[in-house]
Structures are given as C-alpha cells and as structure tokens.
Design goal:
With about 130 residues, the protein is an alpha+beta fold. It is about 20% helix and about 30% strand.
C-alpha cells in the first residue's frame, strides 16, 4: 500500500496493491481530520465516509455514507466539520478528475522496491514502555 497524507487536508489517499504481485487493487480516499506527525507516525481521526476508486482511475464510488449520516445525527460531525468534509470531498474529486496530486504520474505507477525490508516500529511506538 502507498499512502499520501497532504498537509492540512481532511483526507488521505491510499493505493492498495496485491502483496505478492504488486498489481494495483484500488485507490482509497479516507476522509479524516488533518494529520499530526508524532515520533512513531501520525495521528488523525476517521470521519466515516470514504471514496473508492478503480485502479485505472476510470470510476469511483462513495463508501459508508450511511455511517457518515449516523455520525451527523449523533453530533459526532457537527456543522463546521461537515462543511470541511464537504469541501474536502470536492477537492479530492477535483484531484482525481484532473489527475493531479496523488493521482498524477509518476505517483500512479510508483511501487515500493520489492527488495526493501518491511519497516519496523521503534520501541515504545505502541505506547508501552520498553522492557
């Protein structure tokens, strides 16, 4: 998987690939609070709704709109946050339709080198003290 977190945006973009072949499976736009960098990674908060995009970027569909509506009903997504999410949805669709940002070459063809080792989290990254 390749992930792109854009500074200040209410979404991130992920490209899922088959672990064995590297073949693209789909693009996934996750709507979330803007990320904050931490020593062991990033923090964010999922905002329920997602956009699933075909591997060749030819088609897309919304996912979990019912969960987003429930989050609105429960007050988890207030009016100001809803406005930010709606703006982010439009920005993400614009990037996709214009094939820019994470949907532009060379990023659409990039894959990690299969010889790269899997990353390892540093001690304490799970919030526990090292023994």
């Amino acid at each position: 998987m390749r992930s792109t977190f854009l500074a200040g945006e209410y979404f991130s973009v992920h490209r899922f690939q088959d672990a064995d072949t590297g073949e693209p499976l789909c693009w996934y736009v996750n709507f979330e609070l803007p990320h904050t960098r931490r020593p062991a990674g990033i923090d964010t908060l999922d905002l329920f709704v997602d956009l699933v995009v075909e591997p060749d970027l030819s088609d897309w569909s919304w996912k979990d709109e019912d969960e987003y509506a429930q989050g609105r009903r429960l007050g988890l997504v207030g009016d100001d946050l809803h406005t930010s999410v709606e703006q982010a949805r439009q920005r993400a669709l614009g990037l996709l339709q214009e094939r820019v940002g994470p949907f532009a070459d060379p990023w659409t063809a990039w894959s990690p080198d299969p010889a790269w080792p899997l990353p390892v989290l540093p001690d304490g990254a799970d919030g526990t003290a090292p023994h």
